[in-house]
Design goal:
Blueprint (H helix, E strand, L loop, with lengths): L10 E3 L3 E3 L4 H6 L8 E6 L3 E6 L1 H6 L4 E6 L5 H13 L4 E6 L6 H14 L3 E6 L4 E5 L8 H25 L2 H29 L2 H6 L5 H31 L5 H27 L2 H11 L2 H12 L5 H40 L1
Parallel strand pairs: 5-6
Antiparallel strand pairs: 1-2, 3-4, 6-8, 7-8
Length: about 350
């Protein structure tokens, strides 16, 4: 018998009911109590599956956390604590002062972090003696896949807009790209929060469509790669704002071709993730090696550029795009790792 299994006697009660007791540790781990409902589903000819109802899962989520702010606490320390509690799945976060009051500057830091970084949160109480933050969105309102697709769409749009801004010397568009990075991070933080909650509860894991906790780790790494893609778009936009000049037209067209190829790799890698397609992921990894051909075209075109500053900018843009192609290959590698067992079973 496996370590996770134990024998239980069937008992007869009343005139027509059979009962089996549930393990105490299982009840405690899920935060269940007397009177709570569980679902019993038949599995195959001889198996039964028992899990808490969806409503019970919602009500058993971690409820409330409180942390103190000292007068000398740095802004980044406050934000890190806030993000950590958000990741851990708390539905209510209270912030109180260690001494008399929360400083106005600290209150502004908290408000800004909630607005820019924490999806589905609202400040429901704000004073010098306490700030209360409520997480209003839950697991079942926005799926991990839905949030991830939105995050990916924003990151790709940022890349396209960054190069359009360079082409047109459009500083307003460049600033929009920089601001959009907050939106990418918000979706990223939300996904990480949901994954952490899912890992703690096997039923949650299944509700989100994950077959095991290891897949959650894979998704966490994919999210990081998408966040970095947005960061590279920001670097390109900041480059324009700093130097206030475009790039030689012929060379810029080659750079945009390279960018479109990198974006297509990202699309294919993420599609293989959603479809759980091992073979598509393999093809994406092989295709990613072609990024060097596009890189060579750009650098060949840049040889005629006399301005050293412009030449430096071209090389930096090329480096940013190559990184995105590498992230696409990394995502495809994760898909291979997640789905390799399925391939082996099919062959067997």
């Amino acid at each position: 018998m496996k370590d996770s299994e134990e024998a239980r006697k069937i008992q007869f009660t009343g005139k027509s009911s059979y009962i089996v007791s549930l393990p105490k540790q299982w009840i405690m781990d899920l935060g269940l109590k007397q009177g709570d409902q569980v679902i019993v589903a038949r599995q195959g000819a001889s198996g039964l599956k028992i899990f808490p109802s969806t409503e019970q899962v919602k009500s058993s989520q971690i409820d409330e956390a409180t942390f103190e702010i000292g007068p000398d606490d740095k802004d980044y320390t406050i934000v890190r604590k806030l993000i950590s509690l958000y990741f851990l799945g708390f539905k209510t976060i209270n912030i109180i002062p260690k001494n008399d009051r929360i400083k106005p500057s600290q209150r502004m830091v908290v408000k800004d972090a909630v607005k820019r970084m924490l999806m589905g949160t609202e400040i429901i109480s704000d004073s010098s003696s306490e700030i209360t933050i409520q997480v209003l969105v839950n697991l079942f309102e926005l799926s991990v896949d839905g949030a991830f697709k939105r995050m990916l769409h924003i990151a790709k749009s940022m890349l396209n807009d960054a190069f359009l801004a360079v082409k047109e010397k459009n500083f307003d568009l460049a600033n929009e790209v920089i601001n959009a990075d907050d939106e990418v991070d918000r979706f990223g933080f939300y996904i990480i929060r949901q994954l952490k909650i899912a890992i703690q509860n096997e039923h949650m894991l299944e509700e989100m469509g994950f077959s095991n906790a290891r897949n959650c780790l894979g998704y966490r790494l994919v999210v990081k790669n998408i966040e970095r893609t947005g960061d590279h778009a920001v670097i390109i936009a900041k480059d324009l704002i700093e130097f206030k000049k475009s790039i030689k037209k012929e060379t810029l067209e080659k750079i945009q071709e390279m960018n479109q190829f990198a974006i297509s790799l990202m699309d294919e890698a993420c599609l293989s993730l959603f479809k759980e397609d091992f073979y598509q992921a393999e093809k994406t990894i092989e295709k990613a090696a072609d990024i060097t051909k596009y890189e060579k075209k750009v650098l060949d075109s840049a040889r005629s550029i006399k301005d050293e500053e412009e030449h430096y900018r071209v090389r930096r843009m090329v480096e940013n795009i190559r990184r995105i192609a590498e992230y696409s290959s990394d995502i495809a590698e994760i898909v291979l790792n997640i789905n390799v067992e399925k391939v082996l079973k099919k062959k067997a």
